[in-house]
Amino acid sequence: MGKKSFLDRLFPAKYDFYGMLREQAEVTARGVKTMLAWLEAPSTEKFDLVINLTLQADTIRMDMEEKLIEAFTTPFDRQDIYYISVRMDRIIEHARIALQSIKEYDVQPDELIVKMVRELSEGTYTFAQAVALLESDPIQARNQIQMIRNAHKAVEDYYQKGMAAIFKTADAINAIKHYEINCQLRDAANYLSHSVDILHRIVVRLV
Q: Does some domain include residue 81?
């Protein structure tokens, strides 16, 4: 359990920021997992669910920003709450853009795209687990961090392999389509990396 300051005890938190971050992380993980399911077996239902989860995650983020303005005290640094929420939002946003690009550009996802999304899904799932542990067991949350960073590194590795394959193709239009999709997935993974860096800083301050 994180240590509470004198002000935290004198003025108990009005809002459950742990709960809001936990909800946003869970929605983000579910969105990326649904994208992976769509890649493996496309359906309108799965596609629409990713879009709706993206909107839901954004609503949670904006609501949290409003409450940060109103809150007298927060369980940890309010800037960390703001930045981890914003970075998290970028994960599902870039995944959503990649998904729509695949569909609208009529791209057949190759093995590397599927692997990138699978690693991103595993990373966001582990991230959601870590966020859920922040309030009750920050030490255990810290133990999840390396696995999340490993997922980010794996996405980077698949991105490099995907780009190498793109540069060898003679089909320029197809190469451009795959380049944009790969970049969106790499950006999603980079924002996961940014999020876990902030998570680590929060844990250090809590223990």
A: yes
